[in-house]
């Protein structure tokens, strides 16, 4: 089973890296693919929604109320 999973998805070896699980790694990848829409959101005119002093902070809402990558 593990061999089939590794062959089907070569990135399986990355695992969760510094996250608790792989789902959080997938969310970080989506953030990168969609031009940092979660970590550096922009308004409709392309201006940053966060102030310069808030750049290091990531605001989120835990809508799932449970453990795992989705809540990470």
UniProtKB/TrEMBL annotation:
Residues 18-72 form the RrmJ-type SAM-dependent 2'-O-MTase domain. It is found in: Nucleus. PROSITE patterns: SAM_MT_RRMJ. InterPro entries: mRNA_Cap_2O-Ribose_MeTrfase, RrmJ-type_MeTrfase. Keywords: Methyltransferase, mRNA capping, mRNA processing, Nucleus, S-adenosyl-L-methionine, Transferase. It catalyses: a 5'-end (N(7)-methyl 5'-triphosphoguanosine)-ribonucleoside in mRNA + S-adenosyl-L-methionine = a 5'-end (N(7)-methyl 5'-triphosphoguanosine)-(2'-O-methyl-ribonucleoside) in mRNA + S-adenosyl-L-homocysteine + H(+). The keyword Electron transport does not apply. It is an enzyme of class 2 (transferase). The keyword Iron-sulfur does not apply. It comes from the Eukaryota. Its EC number is 2.1.1.57. GO terms for biological process: 7-methylguanosine mRNA capping; methylation; mRNA modification. GO terms for cellular component: nucleus. One of its GO terms (molecular function) is nucleic acid binding. S-adenosyl-L-methionine-dependent methyltransferase that mediates RNA cap1 2'-O-ribose methylation to the 5'-cap structure of RNAs. Methylates the ribose of the first nucleotide of a m(7)GpppG-capped mRNA to produce m(7)GpppNmp (cap1). PANTHER family: CAP-SPECIFIC MRNA (NUCLEOSIDE-2'-O-)-METHYLTRANSFERASE 1, CAP-SPECIFIC MRNA (NUCLEOSIDE-2'-O-)-METHYLTRANSFERASE 1-RELATED. This is Cap-specific mRNA (nucleoside-2'-O-)-methyltransferase 1. The gene is Cmtr1.
């Amino acid at each position: 089973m593990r061999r089939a999973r590794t062959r089907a998805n070569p990135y399986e070896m990355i695992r969760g890296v510094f996250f608790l699980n792989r789902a959080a790694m997938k969310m970080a990848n989506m953030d990168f693919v969609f031009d940092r829409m979660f970590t550096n959101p922009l308004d409709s005119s392309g201006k940053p929604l966060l102030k310069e002093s808030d750049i290091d902070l990531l605001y989120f809402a835990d809508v799932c109320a449970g453990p795992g990558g989705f809540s990470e």
